[in-house]
Design goal:
Rossmann fold; elongated; Immunoglobulin-like
């Protein structure tokens, strides 16, 4: 005999069929649910409150940016169901219209938040997505230290702040690889970079590494294929660090890293100084180009980027030995990043490429750090020598 039939109806469908007239019924329903309600590939987004209209606002490539929620009969509950493949993670807000006014808010029913320099947003974890445990503090991992430096730069005409990560077991008699991270304060603040380094080094996933977290002045200028920025990295920052810290000082022990515009900055610096950096770690690079016509949709800040990427695609050359590239499939940049893989390979560089069901976000970049760093500087391989 077969067991009792299992209902395949969604929770919101079962509630609708009850035609709840008592607000207490809805309150009890919400008390039993984690919002958004994830049932297989179906994710139900909810809003409770009086409103004229409610929209789900998100930037998932392939979905409308504004998705209307439906009202549940005459109740103060609004809902919409969308399908998200297993392992997906998206960030979103709700737009509530009331009395001619519109307000964007984080989801009051969802405690999960993601943070960025632009503020916070709510997060939906689809079935199968879990925050990697190596992104959380591990009491067994010996913590590295952070040291703040100021590097005067003639190239950039400013004093440049640098936060240096030194591994817990640093020995002055040894020699270590160097990772230079663009948008360093954001990686530290929004991508748990120090915790990730502590954990991955402790677990021998990544070699003991000295990491320079750098921060831009005018980001859209300095990171958009700037000769001055490349000169600062290579002729000013690198000699300063190699003079004061126990670095291996060979191309194979140097890596430039960045996300979005920071990935462009890393690639263009390596292009201007080929073979100085043995590896690149590029996340969701803003690799905008125009194979046909001149329209790219990025606006004036992207003009130098487009010229650089067009030139590089037309005549690829080897600027490093290894390139790790990651991108979210829910980003419009996914098309450009996919197309750059064959360009990097044609230039003779070893490439590892990773996609994730995520968007253009710091937590997406955080979640790919283990794959990228363990390939660039694997542990327990020793880069240093006594």
């Amino acid at each position: 005999m077969s067991g009792p039939a299992v209902s395949r109806k969604l929770a919101i469908t079962r509630l609708r069929e009850r035609r709840p007239g008592d607000p207490a019924v809805i309150d009890r329903f919400l008390a039993r649910q984690d919002v958004p309600i994830v049932e297989g590939v179906h994710c139900t987004f909810l809003y409770q409150g009086e409103a004229d209209e409610v929209h789900l606002i998100q930037r998932t490539f392939g979905l409308p940016e504004r998705i209307p929620l439906r009202r549940l009969y005459d109740a103060d509950l609004w809902y919409v169901v969308i399908e998200l493949p297993e392992g997906s993670r998206i960030e979103y807000q709700l737009e509530v219209a009331r009395g001619g006014q519109r307000e964007r808010i984080n989801d009051p029913l969802n405690p999960r938040l993601a943070h960025s320099p632009l503020g916070s947003s709510s997060v939906c974890y689809a079935r199968g997505y879990e925050v990697p445990e190596w992104t959380r503090p591990d009491p067994e991992a010996r913590p590295g230290s952070l040291v703040d430096l100021t590097v005067p730069s003639r190239a950039l005409r400013r004093n440049c702040p640098v936060t240096l990560y030194l591994p817990a077991r640093l020995r002055r008699s040894a020699r270590y690889p160097l990772l230079v991270v663009h948008d360093g304060s954001d990686y530290l603040g929004y991508a748990s970079a120090k915790t990730v380094l502590d954990n991955l080094i402790h677990r021998l996933d990544v070699a003991e590494t000295i990491v320079a977290f750098i921060s831009p002045g005018d980001r859209l200028t300095e990171y958009a294929n700037s000769a001055a920025h490349a000169r600062y990295l290579t002729a000013e920052l690198l000699p300063r660090l190699e003079a004061e810290f126990p670095l291996a000082a060979t191309p194979s022990a140097r890596c430039l890293m960045g996300a979005s515009f920071g990935a462009v900055a890393a690639l263009s610096a390596a292009y201007r100084y080929p073979r100085v950096y043995g590896s690149l770690l590029l996340q969701s690079g803003s690799f905008v180009f125009t194979d046909i016509g001149n329209a790219h949709g990025g606006g004036p800040p992207f003009e130098p980027v487009v010229k650089f990427v067009n030139r590089y695609r037309a005549a690829p050359r080897q600027v490093a030995d290894r390139v790790f590239v990651s991108c979210g499939v829910y980003e419009p940049l996914i098309v450009g990043n996919r197309s750059m893989i064959v360009v990097f390979e044609a230039a003779g560089m070893a490439v590892r490429y990773v996609e994730a069901r995520d968007g253009h976000s710091w937590e997406n970049w955080r979640d790919r750090l283990r794959e990228g760093l363990s390939w660039i500087f694997p542990g327990p391989q020793k880069f240093f020598y006594e």
